[in-house]
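ok so i was messing around last nite and threw this chain in just to see what happens. nothing serious, just curious
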Amino acid sequence: QVQLVESGGGLVQAGGSLRLSCVASGSISSINRMGWYRQAPGKQRELAALITSGGSTNYADSVKGRFTISRDNGKNTVYLQMNSLKPEDTAVYYCNADMSGILPGIFAYWGRGTQVTVSS
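result:
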């Protein structure tokens, strides 16, 4: 069974930093694109950052210059370094990955999410 598990969320003051981690585990053949999405209360889930298997990245305008996504392919892990955090960054952050496993084909998987709360 393939799964994603996030960690690293918490409570931080505005201007502070947090580093999120997401580990993929199970019978994994390959991991393609990995990303972080977030969902604030009462709002739709939105993309924060993406990274391809080759290391190309894409960021939402709201986090550019403050967040950095990276991955360690040997550890099946994706990270999100979040600096200069703002109260509007408060959300549940979800890890997402396109992976292939025992079954043929590539499927999108989601973690359960980790809460990030930024106080003013």
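not much to say yet. The mean pLDDT is 96.
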